[in-house]
Amino acid sequence: MSEQKIIDGKAFAEKLRGKIAAQVATLKSKNGFTPGLAVVLVGEDPASKVYVRNKGEQTKASGMNSFEHKLDASTSQETLLKLIDQLNRDPQVNGILVQLPLPKQIDAQAVINAIDPDKDVDGFHVVNAGRLATGGQGLVPCTPYGCLLLLKDRLGDLAGKHAVVIGRSNIVGKPMAQLLLNESCTVTIAHSKTKDLPAEVRRADIVIAAVGRPEMVKGDWLKDGAVVIDVGINRIEKDGKGKLVGDCDFQSCLPKASAITPVPGGVGPMTIAMLLHSTLVAACRQHGVALPE
Ligand code: NDP
């Protein structure tokens, strides 16, 4: 019973990666090109290094080309912008991702906006945010896009559902709300100034928690049968050991929810799978071919 309630993002992402690998193989054999993803890392942030390594490994495992650019922490904005310009013009590179955060001397938004929007596989460029808001064909931020696939897999048509998104960041909360609106949900966006968060959450058929506060959303905030997508990744100390927890208190939410993503193993694994998917989509558009079935 409980197991059916738990949304297995790891298994879903694995299946998706398998499909992407088959699509890449088709593009190679039928269309004669291999999609390529360039990942740029500036500095030595340990978490960023792990993310970049995982992205590179999964890109190669899918059969795509992976181009890694590792720059010193003291790199100037000008040098980084020159590299972006070079990658924008490189036909082997279909997707460009600059790992965030960037060192203080670099304006992250200026760098993101220097990426060719059609290669902006993170979907953070202002043009892609605009396309998402206005219904144009763009590239969608990977984490909310992954959440949407998990929701549609569980619920099918989302039209008319009341969704409450907690968090309004440019990388998760806002694009998530926009994606749900595009699916004809009625969307509430909550944030740190929201007056009565439990009351807002109690109205929701779908709860998306993207806050960055360990186990904040409690089971008694939920309507019976709500679907809960927990985006949060928080490292806490419990019983003298380090542990990863989400923004939802899993133990109290599980009995009330009809479905819930665990942390780890829920939304997290979907993010890189969606990055590979977006690279594939970008490559197909750049070559003017349809995405293989
Ligand atoms: P941000 O810190 O950029 O945004 C957090 C949002 O939560 C803000 O909008 C903030 O409101 C809101 N908030 C903070 N405190 C409260 C509160 N007490 N009540 C209601 N709202 C509150 O975080 P991100 O969006 O980047 O990330 C959110 C979480 O998702 C983090 O745990 C992060 O680690 C995780 N994450 C996971 C990913 C994955 O792959 N699974 C990818 C990206 C992020 P305000 O705007 O008013 O300050």
TrEMBL record:
Pathway assigned to this chain's UniProt record: One-carbon metabolism; tetrahydrofolate interconversion
Domain annotation Tetrahydrofolate dehydrogenase/cyclohydrolase catalytic: ranges: 7-122
UniProt keywords, alphabetically: Amino-acid biosynthesis, Histidine biosynthesis, Hydrolase, Methionine biosynthesis, Multifunctional enzyme, NADP, One-carbon metabolism, Oxidoreductase, Purine biosynthesis
Tetrahydrofolate dehydrogenase/cyclohydrolase NAD(P)-binding domain: residues covered: 141-286
GO molecular function: methenyltetrahydrofolate cyclohydrolase activity; methylenetetrahydrofolate dehydrogenase (NADP+) activity
Superkingdom of origin organism: Bacteria
Listed Pfam families: THF_DHG_CYH, THF_DHG_CYH_C
Annotated InterPro entries: Aminoacid_DH-like_N_sf, NAD(P)-bd_dom_sf, THF_DH/CycHdrlase, THF_DH/CycHdrlase_cat_dom, THF_DH/CycHdrlase_CS, THF_DH/CycHdrlase_NAD-bd_dom
Keyword ATP-binding part of the UniProt annotation: no
Binding positions for NADP(+) per the UniProt entry: 167-169, 233
Record field: catalytic activity: (6R)-5,10-methenyltetrahydrofolate + H2O = (6R)-10-formyltetrahydrofolate + H(+); (6R)-5,10-methylene-5,6,7,8-tetrahydrofolate + NADP(+) = (6R)-5,10-methenyltetrahydrofolate + NADPH
NCBIfam families in the cross-refs: PRK10792.1, PRK14186.1, PRK14188.1
Subunit structure comment from the entry: Homodimer.
PANTHER family: C-1-TETRAHYDROFOLATE SYNTHASE, CYTOPLASMIC, C-1-TETRAHYDROFOLATE SYNTHASE, CYTOPLASMIC-RELATED
Function field: Catalyzes the oxidation of 5,10-methylenetetrahydrofolate to 5,10-methenyltetrahydrofolate and then the hydrolysis of 5,10-methenyltetrahydrofolate to 10-formyltetrahydrofolate.
Name of the molecule in the record: Bifunctional protein FolD
Species name: Dongia rigui
